[in-house]
User: Fold these one by one.
Assistant:
Number 1:
Amino acid sequence: MPVLVPETLEEACAALAARPGATLLAGGTDLMVGINAGRTRPDDVVMVGRLAELRGWVRDGDHVVLGAGVTYTECMAEPLASLSPVLAQAARSVGSPQIRNAGTLGGNLGTASPAGDGVTALVALGGTVRVRSTEGERDLDLATFVTGPRRTERRPDELIVSVRVPVADGPQEFLKLGTRNAMVIAVASVALVVEPGAVRLAMGSVGPGPVRATEAEAFAASVVDWTTGTAAAGAADEFGALAAAASRPIDDHRSSAAYRRRAIEILAKRAFLRSFSS
Ligand SMILES: Cc1cc2nc3c(=O)[nH]c(=O)nc-3n(C[C@H](O)[C@H](O)[C@H](O)COP(=O)(O)OP(=O)(O)OC[C@H]3O[C@@H](n4cnc5c(N)ncnc54)[C@H](O)[C@@H]3O)c2cc1C
């Protein structure tokens, strides 16, 4: 299993073009677990964890551009945490300090697990994913980037360079339920992002990828008094019920589908109350 260690993004793209089936390695917190457990046996590995071009983030007007190599620890630090609270909250819920120091947003998108906390928050934020190959760059919609469990719109010769998401312009909440309080993969999660006149709700672990609750979103937009940022009593119950109805959970080793649906109802209601209480 040769491991290539390119020094520039251009070299990394050239390495992928020469070996289109190669596996990318960033923080290794997913990939190395798979290799050590014998689930994955990559032929070639291209290491992107040290590429300066993938590190760091910049503010671009009313957006933030985050490199694929940005870690959860970086998402939790100010001033980024205030620009993107939902991402900071999701980051805080990930693994342990060691995992948060090594694990990256690019790796979370690359793995495309239905339980990915970073991915769920990014889908609620909306925006774009930039991918690059020797043929150039493409910007893909975050909403449709994950196409199924462990599947994305990325071509094998492309790597994820960055994501571009809007700066917070309203309340944001990420809530996750697991089988314990820390070091846990989500049994169910919700990411709620509010912008003036609009609400986006993405749900994790209740579908083949992040699931948007579009009816709940439209309901919320119609019942919120946008001058005060509050909603009538009872609206949160209906929001939770609509979110649960939009979820598509399955029974598996972590939870039953029925428990997940009920968890979504409660988490969505709680996120709504936190965002729109007077
Ligand atoms: C103990 C433990 C706890 C965890 N807890 C959580 C948790 O609470 N929530 C959660 O969401 N995840 C959790 N994870 C999973 C993991 O930490 C995250 O998915 C993390 O974001 C992966 O990032 P990485 O940089 O380590 O990716 P890697 O393991 O390096 O790569 C993961 C995948 O992404 C691909 N990839 C990496 N970089 C790129 C790129 N630039 N372009 C395209 N593809 C790329 C790789 O080829 C690979 O397929 C946990 C893992 C462990 C071991």
Note: The mean pLDDT is 96.
Number 2:
Amino acid sequence: MNQSILQLCTPGVQALKPYTPGKPLSELEREYGIRNAVKLASNENPLGPSARVLEAVKAQFADLARYPDGNGFELKAALARKLAVPAEYITLGNGSNDVLELVARAFLSPQSAAVFSAHAFAVYPIVTQAIGARANVAAAHDGSRGPRFGHDLEAMLAAIDADTRVVFIANPNNPTGTWLTRSALADFLRNAPPEVIVVIDEAYFEYVDEPDYPDAVEWVTDYPNLLVTRTFSKAYGLASLRVGYGVSQAGLADALNRVRQPFNVNSLAQAAALAALADDEHLRQSVEINHQGMKQLTQGLRALGLDYIASVGNFVAVDVGADTGAVYENLLREGVIVRPVDNYGMPGFLRISIGLEKENQRCLAALAKVLGR
Ligand SMILES: Cc1ncc(COP(=O)(O)O)c(C=O)c1O
């Protein structure tokens, strides 16, 4: 940006580092002239959306001149039924990122602070900084008391100070794939001050198959300060339509609704999400493909002698050594897009999303070639 214009921005925005998205396939094709590349860079669903979703989206075409239902009545009702909560507990967002931003706009100010972990999802620092609020970044586990790079809830509790209004917790976290147990999170909620909004971000909830992994929605009735966020971008395969949601008591939902854009979720997205919720079989298949793909990819990584962080999401962070920039570039030349995570304070790591069997195979073959293994 022109330097003088940047100086006109608020101090928070001046210091902001914009979000780095995964490289789009079309950009790789444009820049490198590579066809048939595979993108394993944005934790998307490699199966795509359900056929029922495509039908539902098509059925909306005739109404494109109309504004969407600004209150998302039908989608909220369907989510409420599924989650066994009142419809007033649901806040719809343009992706769950939108809901995270609503939290920052409703509860943070330049006089307050947000707590999140080192190596946590990039949108927490962005929405905090955009408001000009202070970020209290808690050190992550070093591997002695919990998974290396994982959230340390004791450190996060200790990072809450008198100015703290919001805590962001990712369960599981991206890009680490680490997760928190039911008892650890329950303790955190019990001990967090009631005047601090606790956001539990469950963007990868549907993928997790650990007996001790909590469903934080069950705690919403007990904690007026709890917001659980989820998304249709991952296991439901609707990333491009941008639809996610928050679940909280009505008081917190009302606060978020005050700063929400009137028509933040478009009608195609609402129809698609409704149809996706009704297609359990597609969800089951998506999760199954992910479990198989995770097995395939991690076995392949071990065979290459590469360390990775055990992940319960649809991605895995792999330690490829110091020069991730060069490895990333060379993988691009092999037609494989992954994600460097230096910006997450994890130099040496690349994050690889789980793809279809042949995509994972292509990625492993490219890694073997690029790393000379
Ligand atoms: C932990 C986490 N939370 C939230 C999101 C936001 O997803 P969306 O805005 O597509 O719902 C992501 C996306 O990568 C994520 O990894």
Note: DSSP finds 14 helices and 13 strands in the chain.
Number 3:
Amino acid sequence: MELIDLNRHEGIGANSHLIRLGDFNILVDSGLDPKMIGKDALPEHAAIAERSIDLIVLTHCHLDHLGSMPLVAARNPHAPIITSLPNTYLAPRMLRNSINVMKRQREELGNTDLPLFLHRDIALFDHQLYGQRFGRSEIHTKAKDQIEIILHPAGHVIGAAAVEFIYKHRRIVFSGDVLFEAQRTLPGAQLPGGKIDTLILETTRGAKARAPEITRVTEVERLINAISKILERGGSCLIPTFALGRMQEIFKIIYEARNFGQLPRCPVFAAGLGMDLCNYFDKIRKKTQLIDFDLKMLDRMRVKPLEINLRPGRDLPQKGIYLLSSGMMVQHTPSYKAAACLLPHPKNGLCFVGYNDPDTPGGQLLADPKAAHFYFDSLEYRAPMRASIQQFDLSGHANREELADYAVQSEARAVVLTHGDTAARHWFSEELSERMPGSRILDPNPGEVYQV
Ligand SMILES: [Zn+2]
Ligand SMILES: [Zn+2]
């Protein structure tokens, strides 16, 4: 098998791999690097410009996997984009939102590359999408060659798939982004068992061990207690959340905690892309039963939109729980604007529920939660930091030990590392080299062709 990692920059980046198996050129994912803007955010598409792609596979709808797929699809109009059924609904919606963000960036930054594609490109992309059920094998042929593809549930986020290719009795598995623990809305991963030939493995959490006593269940409990304390002292609680998956999970956590009397009843406010995605989740539940999320929860909690006229420094007019995207408090988003209102008032509290990149406002706030002030750049407002700030580990990614165990039991002849920063990959490289002495552990250089 020939393999090229097309992610140009270090870290998680713009995920995309090309593999060649016999006559088949297959592209797995084509994302955008969340830390880059414009063409810098694209995968190294030049490395595959000469090749015609036969099959495209989309593991899930986070933009670091999906974000540049309309460009690849347009260049390879005959290649089906194979993905799980939920993703056939979600991918066009996520891409449409991405166009809006890119248009705003064009205005702000004067970057004329943006938007990288248009709504009509998404219509064509949509046409190429091919939904495949989890666990079902489908065979694709090219001349006399054939390949079998099976998608497996990877937890992580609704629709997330690990991809298994079977070619001449060799099993090649892309883990995609994986979470083994169940979320409130979604069961955990069920990756393919048995002996694998080549495993392409995510390494997101490789740099850090998680204490064994900390689990998703204990973190959810700690979160409920924290929200409850903030409300009891008469404050508002802001939970910045990722729109796809995490917001819906937190809705369910709050809903159930209220029903069990663990949280006092109070107004719940929500805003951002995540609210629209709730409608999609409800539809996906009805059509596929792959998620446990019912829109009726929002009616029963009487979820309200965020007030539009927010003034930095002036406390939010109504006390309650504010569930707002984005999860990393990126500028111009509802969570960023609401934080500028909440932060100066000591009764309020901020609860972060996911990973925050150090370069984002959320990451900067968490880097020094005891600082005296925080500067809200785009609002030109220096806020005194008086509200409480806490973080809860509701990550969508598996612990490094769980992933390493999976790799070891697969007895893979080769393990290819991906989706992690240098320290994370380094841990996996050391750990797997020791535990799998007969296997090749590969941390590929971007754009280089490897025979695996
Ligand atoms: Zn992801
Ligand atoms: Zn990812």
Note: Residues 85-109 form the longest helix (25 residues).
Number 4:
Amino acid sequence: MSEKTCKDITLGAAARFLKRNDDYIILTHASPDGDTLGSAYALYYGLKEIGKSAEILCPDLIPAKYSYFAVKTDHIKSEKATVIAVDVADEKLLGALKDSFAGKVKLCIDHHISNTRYAEKLLLDSKASAACEIMYELLVKLKVNINDVTAKALYTGIATDTGCFKFSNVTAKTHLITAELFDYNIDAADINRLMFDTKSKKLLQLERMVLDTAEYHFDDKCILLTVTEEMQEKTGCSGPDLEGIAIISRSVEGVLAGVTIKQTGKEEFKISLRTFEPLDASEICRSLGGGGHKGAAGVTISGTLDMVKEKILSAVKTNMEKTNVWASADK
Ligand SMILES: [Mn+2]
């Protein structure tokens, strides 16, 4: 689907679209997080309420911690399915599902400003803290019954994409929608403990190793953390375990750019970038072929670790110069 033919649609148009068809495949992004899963499942439960069939396809294994809402869904034959993608900013992020579904997404529901407009129709609200905020409004528009599990899925997406309501993407609307979700039995404290305050012994061990890799650049305004394949093997941590590692990089005093480099192949590295104003993580990652939000973005780069470090540091430097936060070069 070329950029030109992607049509922006309203909540009302999206609701009508959902009523029109019967069988849906809902796609999430690879390395699934609480928001892509929460919005996919909320949509799934909503579609079931209005008598539709739907299957959720996730490119990677869904971590067990989401099992309080992530159940087994219907099986839909892809020939007759209407394909929807949620929280997926770019077809590349469909990972293992990309080859089967590229060019076939009819509706994308997203909140990434970097959305590459690959779908036929796009319901985008870049001011929404999470795709789950948009999904809540869509379910209200559809006038479907929201049950406790749907509310838990939505709450999970909003809580995880806002770092438990701490990030700059939180708005009054975020809180108003969340307040509505408290009408249901969501056990918010339990969800937050599971999402934010619980880690495995092996992850704690990995975090200790990662902290030892810390490098500071540009007058300590940038921290760089590295997670090598060797560390992952030694500790037994894998993809989903690493989801929360990037958060460490934004907790250091004075740091405006937190870079976490995770090795995903012999010469392939996935970068998670966290920034504070005036830096723009989305712009930095986009310059390297990735994307995301202003405060949190990512990109996958091939090459040796040294090459990858140089590329991301140079992109961070460019953004620092552009935004005038850093005047003197130390590199
Ligand atoms: Mn999201």
Note: Residues 305-322 form the longest helix (18 residues).
